Amino acid sequence: MNALQQDIAQLIIDTLNLEDVTVDDIPPDLPLFGEGLGLDSVDALELALALQKHYDIRIASDSKDARQHFTTVATLAAFVQAQKDACAS
Amino acid sequence: MSEQLVQERHWSAHKERGSFILMWLTALSVRMFGRRLLAPVLYLIVLYFFASARSARRNIRQYQIYLAQWSGNASLRPTLKSVFGQFIAFADNLLDRLDVWRGRLRFEQVQLIDPSGVRSRLLRSQHGGRGEMLVVTHLGNPDVCRAMAELSEQVPLNVLVHNHHVAQFNRLLGEAGDRSMRLIQVSELDTAMMMDLSQRLERGEWLAIAGDRVPLNDGRRVVVDFLGHAAPFPQGPWLMAGLLRCPVNLLCCLKVDGRYRIYLDAFLDNAQWQRGQRDEAIRGWVQRYADHLAGQCMIAPQQWFNFYAYWQPPERPTHKEAADAN
């Protein structure tokens, strides 16, 4: 798990008050919704707000892409990195 | 069967019609007429509404029965006169709304009942304080937000609505020289909208949203007890408050003895739920809100202006159950 992935896993835990869950419990390829971590659409919204604030990025609303970015910590990290690079350039 | 269809017609269908009439009248009255000339026309419209809308009559009757039962006050039981009285109260309310929109109802004319000091927090938002939410109701005169804009002085107030005529309303507001109030259309909670609202709160702006009407295409509703019977309420305002982590206050404006009173009540210091207990938390808030609303119904029993079927129909199978039975 790279630093950004760890960072995001921690953000998920803090934002959603996931008690008894540590960063190690959220491997990068664990599905965040449904079977995996069991998040729902309101959690996703809460998480998106936190990500936007934390990384100062913009997340387009409810497009199919946005949903795909929220599949796992790995996809989220890739998305955040891409957004940050886009903003930096 | 057609009776049921009429009953099931959603409030937004009624509201749409009402809004158009109201906007049309507003525009017309600003240019030509005063209240005195408009009043008879409006009474005629409401009389026609009373005579023709059987379901609306029945729904008001149901409200009055529930209110009488719930309060144990037999004098509130419906009669033809009391049901008609509620329609007339609606006509008066529309006329008052015209005054509000034209800026005729000044803040000095309104009595403010604010035991928990919500207004002082509102004014503090000018000086770097974070904004908060106001949950408003369709009891009394919800358009008093216009007067609230004056109450809030320089604090911008964003009114969140499900209405499609936002652009027109905003234009009307602009023409009326109102810069501190803005209508925002929310059809769905999405990240862009929530981010925008979150930034508004950070800038010290306030948000107002109705807490007593379930939007058409939104499955997020919660059924709680209201006046002794199960009624659906929207989850949206409370989800929003939780996501934005902001305090929630209740705003209601009632006409008592011919004078408007604005009731401001602090409701939630900070809308937050424990992990996995979101639904329970929201249900608790909504039940408390419904109880508060019931108390306010007792202050102005005739000013309940939800003319559609507000409560869940008792013991009618849902579509799914009906399908299963077949």
UniProtKB/TrEMBL annotation, chain A:
<feature type="domain" description="Carrier">
    <location>
        <begin position="1"/>
        <end position="84"/>
    </location>
</feature>
<dbReference type="InterPro" id="IPR009081">
    <property type="entry name" value="PP-bd_ACP"/>
</dbReference>
<protein>
    <submittedName>
        <fullName>Acyl carrier protein</fullName>
    </submittedName>
</protein>
<dbReference type="Pfam" id="PF00550">
    <property type="entry name" value="PP-binding"/>
</dbReference>
<dbReference type="InterPro" id="IPR036736">
    <property type="entry name" value="ACP-like_sf"/>
</dbReference>
UniProtKB/TrEMBL annotation, chain B:
<protein>
    <submittedName>
        <fullName>Glycosyl transferase</fullName>
    </submittedName>
</protein>
<dbReference type="GO" id="GO:0016740">
    <property type="term" value="F:transferase activity"/>
</dbReference>
<keyword id="KW-0808">Transferase</keyword>
<dbReference type="Pfam" id="PF03279">
    <property type="entry name" value="Lip_A_acyltrans"/>
</dbReference>
<dbReference type="InterPro" id="IPR004960">
    <property type="entry name" value="LipA_acyltrans"/>
</dbReference>
<dbReference type="InterPro" id="IPR014548">
    <property type="entry name" value="Ac_Trasf"/>
</dbReference>
<feature type="transmembrane region" description="Helical">
    <location>
        <begin position="33"/>
        <end position="51"/>
    </location>
</feature>
<keyword id="KW-0997">Cell inner membrane</keyword>
<keyword id="KW-0472">Membrane</keyword>
<keyword id="KW-1003">Cell membrane</keyword>
<keyword id="KW-0812">Transmembrane</keyword>
<keyword id="KW-0012">Acyltransferase</keyword>
<keyword id="KW-1133">Transmembrane helix</keyword>
